[in-house]
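A reminder from the course coordinator: this example appears on the midterm review sheet, so study it carefully.

Given structure:
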C-alpha cells in the first residue's frame, strides 16, 4: 500500500509536532548512494548503489547516478567539474520555500534512522574479489545511552541456493560518551557459511566496551612449554599467552571536500580514507622452553596509540 508523508502545522505556524508517529515510520527510508569501488576484470569502472538511510520528510529529490555522470562528462576534468559547482554555489541563494522549511527530521529527538536489513555482495575486481555491504531497508531506532552489543543481520550469497542470514552483531552508537571515546567491539566469535567452495568464516561481534578510538583487544595464542622440575621430572604443558591486537583508527576531521549547497548531508566528493595508524605502544615478553628444548620469546601488546 502506498503511503504519503505530510507535515501539518497550525494556523499560527509556531508549533510543529516533530515526533509524530506517522512521520517517524514513513520518512525514514533508503535512498540511492553510489560508491565507486574500482575496475572489473574487463577494466570497466564499477559503481555500487550501497544505499543510505535518511530521515527527512519532504526532502528534495536527489539527482540520479546517471544524471550525475552526464553532468560530469560535460567537463574535461574533475577540477573543472568542481570549479563549476563552486561557481554555482556562490550565486544568489534561492528563496526558501515552505517545503524546504518543513524538511524536519522524522525519527524524533531520541531516535535515529538506521539500516534494518543489509546484504553482502561479492564483486570480482581487477585487484581481486571484494565484499560490499548494501543497505536494503531502514527504520527509526532508539538512541541508546549504554554501550552494548546490538543485533546486525547480514544476508550472504543473496538470491542463490546458499543464501544465509547471520547476526554478525555491532556496537550501539551510545550518546553522551566522553570525548574521544566510542562504543567498539572487544570480543569476537565466528560463524560458518556454506558456499560452492566449501565454507566461509564470518567474524561476529560478541561484546562491546567504551574505548578510545585506538585500543587494545585480547588475542590469545597457545604454545607447548617444557618445564623441568627440581626432582628431575620433565613436564610438557600448554602455555596460554594473550598477545593482544590493536584495533581502531586515528583519522580525524571530516573527509567531505565538497557538500551539496541544497542538502548539507549530501557529499559530492570524499577525501581518501587514511590507512589505520593504530599501533602497539607498550609490550612485555614471555620466555619459555619449546618442545625442542630451545628458549623462545613471545612479545605481547599491553597498550596501543596513534602513530603520527
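Designed residues:
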Amino acid at each position: 500500500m502506498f503511503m504519503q508523508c505530510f507535515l501539518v502545522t497550525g494556523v499560527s505556524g509556531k508549533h510543529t509536532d516533530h515526533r509524530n508517529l506517522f512521520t517517524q515510520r514513513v520518512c525514514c527510508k533508503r535512498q540511492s548512494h553510489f560508491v565507486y569501488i574500482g575496475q572489473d576484470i574487463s577494466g570497466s569502472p564499477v559503481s555500487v548503489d550501497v544505499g543510505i538511510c535518511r530521515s527527512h520528510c519532504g526532502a528534495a529529490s536527489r539527482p540520479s547516478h546517471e544524471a550525475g555522470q552526464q553532468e560530469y562528462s560535460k567537463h574535461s576534468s574533475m577540477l573543472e567539474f568542481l570549479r563549476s559547482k563552486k561557481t554555482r554555489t556562490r550565486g544568489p541563494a534561492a528563496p526558501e520555500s515552505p517545503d524546504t522549511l518543513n524538511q524536519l527530521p522524522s525519527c524524533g529527538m531520541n531516535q535515529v534512522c538506521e539500516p534494518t536489513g543489509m546484504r553482502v555482495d561479492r564483486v570480482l575486481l581487477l585487484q581481486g574479489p571484494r565484499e560490499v555491504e548494501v543497505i536494503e531497508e531502514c527504520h527509526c531506532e532508539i538512541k541508546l545511552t549504554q554501550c552494548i552489543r546490538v543485533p546486525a543481520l547480514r544476508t550472504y550469497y543473496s538470491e542463490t541456493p546458499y543464501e544465509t542470514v547471520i547476526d554478525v552483531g555491532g556496537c550501539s552508537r551510545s550518546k553522551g560518551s566522553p570525548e574521544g571515546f566510542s562504543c567498539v567491539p572487544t570480543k569476537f566469535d565466528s560463524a560458518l557459511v556454506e558456499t560452492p567452495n566449501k565454507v566461509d568464516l564470518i567474524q561476529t561481534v560478541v561484546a562491546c566496551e567504551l574505548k578510545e578510538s585506538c585500543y587494545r583487544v585480547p588475542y590469545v595464542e597457545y604454545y607447548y612449554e617444557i618445564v623441568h622440575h627440581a626432582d628431575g621430572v620433565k613436564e610438557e604443558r600448554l602455555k596460554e599467552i594473550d598477545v593482544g591486537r590493536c584495533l581502531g583508527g586515528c583519522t580525524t576531521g571530516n573527509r567531505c571536500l565538497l557538500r551539496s549547497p541544497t542538502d548539507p548531508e549530501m557529499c559530492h566528493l570524499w577525501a581518501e580514507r587514511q590507512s589505520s595508524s593504530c599501533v602497539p605502544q607498550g609490550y612485555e615478553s614471555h620466555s619459555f622452553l619449546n618442545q625442542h628444548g630451545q628458549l623462545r620469546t613471545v612479545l605481547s601488546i599491553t597498550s596501543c596509540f596513534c602513530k603520527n
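Residues 213-307 form a domain with the Cystine Knot Cytokines, subunit B fold (CATH 2.10.90). The CA atoms of residues 63 and 69 lie 10 Å apart.
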